[in-house]
Amino acid sequence: MKARRAEAVAAYAFLTPFLALLAVFFVYAAGRAAYLSFTDYDLFSWPPNFVGFGNYSDLLQDTVFLTALRNTVLFSLVVTATQTAGALVMASVLNSKIRGISFFRASYYIPAIASSVVITLIFMWLFQRRGTVNFILGQVAAHLPHILLLVVLAALLQGAQVAWERARGLPAGWFDPALLVVSLLMALAGTVLADFLGLIRAAAAANVDISWFQTSRAVPDGFPFWLQAPLPLVTIMMMNVFTTIPTFMLMYLAALQDVPRSQYEAASLDGANPFQQLRWITVPAVQPVTFLVVTLSLIGTLKVFDQVAILGDAAPFRSRVTLAYYVYDRMFPGGQAPEVGFAAASAMFLALLTLLVVLLQRRFLRAEGA
Amino acid sequence: MAAITGNRPENERAPAPAELVRWHARRRWARAGLVYTVMLAFAVLFLGPLLLAFVSSLRVDPLSYPPTLNPPQLWPRNWVAAANLGAAGADDAWFGGFAPGASVSFEVTYLVADGNEFESPEATIPRRRPAGLGATRRIVYAADHASLSAPVLVESRPADPEAGDAGSAGTLLTYRLEVRYPNDGPTVAKLPLDVTAVAGMRYESSTLSASRLERRGRVASFDNIVPGALGYVFHNYRRVFDEVRAPGSEERLFLLWFRNTFVFAFWRIVVTLAIASLAGYALARLRFAGKELIFVLVLFAQMIPDQLLFISNYLVLRDGIWGLSRLWGQATLLNSMTGLVFVTALNAAGVFIMKQFFETIPREVEEAAMIDGASQWGRFWRVVLPMGRPALGALTILTFQGAWNDFFWPLIVLTSPETQKTLPVGLLSFRNTYGGAVGDWGLILSGAVLSAVPVIVLFVVFQRYFLEGVAVGGTKG
């Protein structure tokens, strides 16, 4: 009994520094934010007046807040869907035991380890009006005939070859790799030849002049307010996918190592194409990872802040504001008086949204019986 | 699985077994080839933007059109020329300069179409003042010390498109000019030059490629004709250090930011290792009431967004943790490194990692020490902690990365002066100062690339720790 007491005392002694920080910077902080969300505190006059649910009802009337809410939810859903699906597809393409994969794995991870500031600055530069992205879009538009011809030729050649092999009694699938290599090379040669003979010609490089940041345009055009993403936000989405997809891809890749290769080989002998294999073997096998990836992604994207802050006055406020940035902006609104109560109320909103995601995840996990 | 059977091609005329084996082997090779191609494509996708940003950061103006992966700064011809000019200017082939006694000779070649008039171009040494954060600094101008000779025609030959001379038929005229530093004086870092020709003459080439061409190629403008090899290639990187100075003290802001970020990372690592190993050990090994509650809080603390917590934490720091900081003479912890370390010291993910690791160490190890009569502290300090070295190493690296890249807390805590900031918020000042409508993207990109170097080096050296962290379950800070 005495030994037990001594152990508990030692435990609390070991935990003291952590608990002190946890108490001040987490428990107290969360409680105080909840309290302040019911007041009209302005950083200076203490004690503040109690306003009940006033801040919350005002928030729901504030179009800027509603825009921030819309931006955040759209951002979170679009980015999560894109990077989960993208990471899974990339991982299953790369899932093979070949030499040199560790080098490639490492190189994919570089965007994830650089800071958000570095990546955002580089993207801001890429997306300038006379920047690289617009330049590449212009080149693609100019070479559209080439691209179309390449795709059509490759498809025709592949179809012809597969039909021929099957006629010879060989079990070739529609995406047979050996035939695909030949089809692609021949299609490439054909396209180069067509260009050389003057059958197709690059248009004069179109001057693509999309203003990615200084715009209040939202896409897709003509959609209702709740489904439209402002263009600057779309660039932040691309940025986020770019930096996070490698991490998730590596998580999927680790999970795929445990799926027996024989399953794919059997399916392939049965004539299943790569898409059917993905749908019926890969997706069910990596479901637990998908769960983790979706949750991490939702929690991470709901609090997107850095990129919005760094973009700063390069984009109109409403075209980039998210919930996290809205909180910051109410707290330090530049020239005006801080509205801490407002900030706290919107922060509570953000925290509740995050908790909701976590609770849903718990719910699903329990339903899965895991 | 039933859905995918049944479309196997049925054929009575089955191929010979040996042929079938060869057929399958071919498929395996082709698949490997395709996978490598796709991997290469992904590598281009993920590293391409970063590589392009690095190459463009070497250009005089990274926004100049069209984008290229082969700017003049990467041409060996220019490296040699820059080194020779640097040696002529200040006996320094690497970093160049313009020192007393120097005599620099420089050639510019123009193309004159047949039938067009031509005359000697005019050369001037302009006074260029850097804009932005460094604008208040006193600058020594090369123009005050240099004596410039008028350009002399030294060579005239017909243009030969076959031999690589661009454009239509005409005459190539090469002019040479001399810049000397006759009197005594300070060594000047830069010797800019503008050479203006009459209409009808088109700039073709020069000893060192022109920084920019204006007025349809009539004005060739050089930022520095005595750069030295490194000074030429890493022109913008040098500007990051030279031009961005603290108001008043003239200290190099970028170096200060680098130092501050290292200091921040150092303290954050020390604090995290100490707190997380103690707490992780207690949670993993010791029995006490309230353990479940603490563990739930640890999980919550990893999820709740900082934007909820910073409201109170900002106020706590402003008031110096209820006056506690007055004990060491700070009335407020805002705009101080101490405050930043305090507010980021709560690292629930770190505690979680250490707890998970300590749980993998067998209990028997400790029990042996217990029989020897070691105290609780002794068991932790002499037995368990030394075994935790791999986890402590991983935590050190992840904490360094987290601290180096941290943007939100430094943004809240370190608002002024500029000299206090860490790199990420410093880069934000860069972006606010130089990233406007016209924009000096050379400075911004160089700053961004430089600031990413330490984490990239760390990653290359300690790759294993990063990638294992991902495979285990993604503890992204």
Report on the structure:
- The complex is a heterodimer of chains A (370) and B (477).
- Helices cover 71% and strands 1% of the residues of chain A.
- Chain A has a two-stranded antiparallel sheet with strand order 1-2.
- With 370 residues, chain A is mostly helical.
- The model of chain A has no long low-confidence stretch (mean pLDDT 89).
- Chain B is of the alpha+beta class.
- In chain B, strands 1, 3, 4, 5 and 7 form a five-stranded antiparallel sheet that branches.
- The relative contact order of chain B is 0.10.
- The model of chain B is unreliable at 1-12 and 471-477 (pLDDT under 50).
- At the A-B interface, helix 1, helix 3, helix 4, helix 5 and helix 8 of A face helix 1, helix 5, helix 6, helix 7 and helix 12 of B.
- By DSSP, the count of extended strands of chain B is 9
Q: Biggest sheet of chain A: strands side by side, in what order?
A: 1-2
Report the sheet with the most strands of chain A, covering strand number, pairing sense and barrel closure.
2 strands, antiparallel
Structural class of the secondary elements of chain B? alpha+beta
Distance between the termini of chain A: 37 Å
The N- to C-terminal Cα distance of chain B equals 41 Å
Number of strands of chain A: 2
Q: From the alpha-carbon coordinates, what is the Rg of chain A to the nearest angstrom?
A: 27 Å
How would you characterize the largest beta sheet of chain B? 5 strands, antiparallel
Order of helices and strands of chain A: HHHHHHHHEEHHHHHHH
Topology:
The complex is a heterodimer of chains A (about 375) and B (about 475).
Chain A: H1 2-36, H2 54-61, H3 63-94, H4 101-113, H5 116-126, H6 132-142, H7 144-167, H8 177-196, E1 218-219, E2 229-230, H9 231-256, H10 261-269, H11 274-285, H12 287-302, H13 306-311, H14 323-331, H15 340-368
Antiparallel strand pairs in A: 1-2
Chain B: H1 17-57, H2 76-90, E1 103-113, E2 122-124, E3 147-148, E4 152-158, E5 170-180, E6 193-196, E7 201-206, E8 212-214, E9 219-222, H3 229-233, H4 235-242, H5 253-285, H6 291-303, H7 306-318, H8 320-323, H9 337-344, H10 348-360, H11 363-371, H12 376-387, H13 389-405, H14 408-413, H15 423-434, H16 441-461, H17 463-472
Antiparallel strand pairs in B: 1-5, 1-7, 2-6, 3-5, 4-5, 6-9, 8-9
Helix pairs in contact in B: 1-16, 4-16, 5-9, 5-10, 5-13, 6-10, 10-13, 11-12, 15-16, 16-17
